[in-house]
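Sequence, structure tokens reproduced for absentees:
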Amino acid sequence: MVLRLALPSGSLQESTLGLMRRAGYDVRTTGRSYYPSINDPEIEVVLFRAQEVSRYVEDGVMDAGLTGIDWITENGSDVVEVAELIYSKRTAQPARWVLAVPEASPIQEVEELDGRVIATEAVNLTNKFLGEHGVSARVEFSWGSTEAKAGLVDAIVELTETGSSLKSNRLRVVAEILETTPRLIANKGAWEDAWKRKKIENLAVLLKGAIVAGAKVGLKLNAPREALDDILQLLPALHTPTVSPLSDGGWSAVETVLDESVARELIPELKRAGAQGIIEYSLNKVIP
């Protein structure tokens, strides 16, 4: 039996393949092929545009897939949401769909767009948002490069992660429509199949573990008996640090997991407290 897994091509492709590799799945593409190889004979991977993944999963063409909650909502796809996976193209922050206008535009509020023209790739999301604000506007589908159309329409609705593209195109955000993160989704029929469900759940555990590990590091050190208590007070951990007595009764080996951002400030303090042999190492997966 094989699990058919849809992964997003395009802007999320490299970050998704990197996440898969950290989770233990070596997914490799060759040339322009949309059928990558994977080091699990029980999984078959196909690359689709993120906009299409939820439709193929809903229709049963694929058993499971990774795509944003924005496209699941845009397509109105009836699928099982297995897990939220917070990663993106450039950062670990959620991307946002925003309503934007040229900097020189007099428009300041959503309500001022009544009767105006808006360009976007997310037509359904935009119409839903406008309806919630009692605004009737003409929403035109954009095939991409929506920022370039800002001078041709009254406003655009576009996906942004850092906001840099909007600024470089001299656009001003009027409102945020939706914050979006990738989701692991499953076809309802596949989810009812015991073998496929277990395979999908295993994938979810490993992917989430890889995401958690991305912001953390492991730390090992040796602590002299007289400084052990002071050193332990400095150390954060998921629960408590692991302490193992060494053959020399005067020393203990200490190991813990902590946020990478904390390590650079903590290591000098540990050294001052008497720790020796301090080793920082990267992690592939952290399963809470």
Summary: The chain has nine helices and 14 strands. The chain has three domains: 3-89+182-213, 95-180, 216-282. The chain has a mean pLDDT of 92. The two ends are 30 Å apart (CA to CA).
